[in-house]
Each structure stands twice: as structure tokens, then as C-alpha cells.
Amino acid sequence: MKKSASNSVSLQISELEAENARLRAELAIARDELETIFDHSMMGVALVDHNRKILTTNQRFLDILGYTSLHEILGQQTHKLHVSHKDFEGFGEHYDTTLRHSGVVHVATPMRRKDGSEIWLDLVGRAIDRTTPPDLSKGVLWMAYDLTDIRQAYQQLREANAELEGFFANCMIGIIILRGGRRIRRVNQRLADILGDKPPEWYQGKCVSEFHVSQEKFEEFGRLFYNSLVLRDHSQVEFELRRVDGSPVWVSVSGKALDDATPPDLDKGVIWMVDDISTRKEAEEQLARIATTDSLTNVSTRQHFMELANRALAQHLRNSRPLTVCMLDIDHFKQINDTYGHGTGDRALAWFAETVSGELRATDIIGRFGGEEFCIVLPETDQDEAQQVAHRIRTAVTGGSSAAASPIPPITVSIGIALADTPASMEAVIQLADRALYAAKAKGRNRAEIDETMVRG
């Protein structure tokens, strides 16, 4: 009986020893794993006691602060690692407040490396004791991450943003950034100057349609040019916009989608570069006027008149509506030049052209053919209507020039009228009108004659 009890106790002891050995083995494995993690962690790790003395660190912590051996800082206060005594004391507040309250502290702070240089670290401290409040005498585990690269990247980003802001604010080209629904996200000062006297902030949130001359033009712009953004076609276009005060302004525009996807999502933003080309447009229009407008009489030159007349004739042939041509000649104009001088003759020509133009519709075409001879095209006008126009012109010229306040001597005009009916050309119709003009002069001048000859193509 005693022998059996003794065997049972021996068995229990053996089992306990085996369990103890197993636990020790697992503990050794866990310790090895922890040491491996501790030694090879990408973050610096330091164990500090309640007096803020360094108990141990891993190699990464030493590398971050520029030390080669743990013995260089082992047992020393962390005062050595702070940039100043004031900073060291200020950091101690974390022990007295945050750590005692929650057991964890997270802070970014500058530290001092072995060579005296400054380094910014992201520090996370945790009390070893997990009671509440924790017993800090059991130590604090600090984990340190080097923020140097991140801070340098942020600094570079800040500098790049400052450069971009400087470019955006001072660029001599207008810049507008749109977001979803073609609403304005930002404009620069130059764009604000182009569109009026409001500050850039005033435009934020407004729909860009407010700055098109009409809703139709806004929609037309979208149809014509937003497809090119999807296709990443960086074409430059010219378009007329409307300033804040309602006046028109011609601009040159090029845009790019901000989204890098293919195709890009335009709701994520579009940047437009806008240049004011009003001065150039005005110069082009002035050059066009010089090239197409007689400088003395302000009506079309002969070449430009023929271009417009041929278009009118082509439309006449398409829609079969009547079209009439009138040739006009100031009677005895040479006598005016001989009697009053060429200056008066020039004033007479200018007054005559202005008076005749005042009797015409916006769709009618008038040009100076040379000297005192002018030609008129009257679209959608038959023979009777053309004779009424001729009568009005003769009355206005004779009456106006004979008035007491007239700036010129009294003049009269002879007019030849030809009706186009499937003509061979506009030149052929003008020849008929010119023939009718000669008939009017032959019959005593100051009258209108019509040539009803039909010219077949």
C-alpha cells in the first residue's frame, strides 16, 4: 500500500517536472522571438525606468540617434537625448499627466543625436504596468520612429505648394479650375481681371455658364470642346465669354482633365488656361474692315461686295426667292469736283453712301464699284419692291442734299435695276443693271430704269 502511494507521488513529480520543462522551453522560444523582434524591429525601442534612466534599447534606437553601442547611453537619463534642458523638463509632463492617466502617450518631438544634430522622432510611450493608474516605477517602453524623411518630404511639398501658389497667383495667363457640374473651384487673379473687377474668391462655387454670352453658347462649348478633354486632345480654341458687367470678351482657351484615368472622369476636375485676346481680335477685325471696307464711304469694297453678292445669288438659286441688283451713279459728279474741289467731292461721296445705306435693310448689300458708282444687291426683292427702294433712295438723296443744313451741294442719282432669274453669274446680272443705269442717264438722269432681260444659265 505504501509502495503504491510512493509510486503515485513519483509519477506526479515526474509529470510536473515534464510540464515545467515544456513551459520553460516555450518560454525560451517566446523570449527568443521577442528578442528577435526587439533587435530587428524597424522602430527604435527603449526601456526607461521611472527616473527616466535608460535600461536597454534595441539596435534600431541606437542607429536612429547615432550611437554604436548601448553602453554609451545605458543607465543615463534621457536628458542626454533632448535638445535642451527646458525641452527635457517639458517632456517630463507626459510622465506626470498623460502616462499616469492613460498609460500611453504619443508625441512628435525633436531629439538630439550623438553628434549634436537635431532629429524629429515620432514617440509612443507605454507604461509596463497595466493597472489604472499605472505604476511607472515598473518602467516605460518607448518606441521611436524617425520622421526625418517624412518631414523633409512635407517640407518639399510645402515648398512645391508655395511655388505652385505663387505661379497660380501671379501667372499672366488666366487659370480656372472646375469641378463636377462645371462649377468653379478656383480662379487666379489674372482670370478675375479678365472677367471683371471681382476678387478670385467671388467666383468660387459659381457655374461657368454665368460667364458665357448665352445658355446656347454654354451648351455649344460643352458639345464642341468637352469631348476633346475625354480624348486628351489639347487643342486651343477661341471663344467669346461674358464679363461680370455683361460686356463680351474674346479669349483663347485650352483645357486638361485632372483625372489621370482613361477615359478621365471630368467631374473630378478640369483646368482651363484662359488668355484675353480681345486686343488681337479687335486688330484682326480692324484689318478685316480695312481689307473689306472702302475707307472713304464705309461701304464694302468691290472685291468684298462681289463675295457677298455671290453668296446671296447662291442662296437665291437654292430657295428660288427673287433677287434684284441696282447700279447707282451720282449725276454730274465731275462738276462737283471741278466747282467745289475734291474735298467737297469726297464729302459728297461719304454722305451719299451713308444716305443710301440708311434706306436699306440689314440683309441688303452695298458696295462702291469705283469713283461715284455704287452697286446694291436686294435679296428677296422683286421688280416692284426694287422700284420702291430706288424711289426712296432718289428722294432721300435729292431732298437731303438740297436741304439748308446739307453739308454738300445738291446732287441727284441715276439708278439701273436688273432682276436675277437663273443667271449665269452675278457679273451677268450686274451688267444688266449697268445697262439699265446707262438708259436712265440717257433719259435725262435723276431717275430709275429697269432692265427686265432674263439671263439664262
UniProtKB/TrEMBL annotation:
By its UniProt entry, which CDD domains does this protein fall under?
GGDEF, PAS
Q: Catalytic activity annotated for this protein? A: 2 GTP = 3',3'-c-di-GMP + 2 diphosphate
Q: Which SUPFAM superfamilies match?
A: Nucleotide cyclase (SSF55073), PYP-like sensor domain (PAS domain) (SSF55785)
Q: Give yes or no: UniProt keyword Coiled coil.
A: yes
Q: Which GO terms of the molecular function aspect are on file?
A: diguanylate cyclase activity
The keyword Phosphoprotein appears for this protein: no
How is this protein named in the record? diguanylate cyclase
Q: Which UniProt keywords apply?
A: Coiled coil
Quote the InterPro entries the UniProt record gives: Diguanylate_Cyclase, GGDEF_dom, Nucleotide_cyclase, PAC, PAS, PAS-assoc_C, PAS-like_dom_sf, Rev_trsase/Diguanyl_cyclase
Q: Residue ranges of the GGDEF domain?
A: 321-453
User: Where in this chain does the record put each PAC domain?
Assistant: 105-159, 235-289
E.C. designation(s): 2.7.7.65
This protein's species is: Desulfohalobium retbaense (strain ATCC 49708 / DSM 5692 / JCM 16813 / HR100)
Name residues in a coiled coil.
6-33
What PROSITE patterns does this protein's entry cite? Answer: GGDEF, PAC
Gene3D superfamilies linked: 3.30.70.270, PAS domain
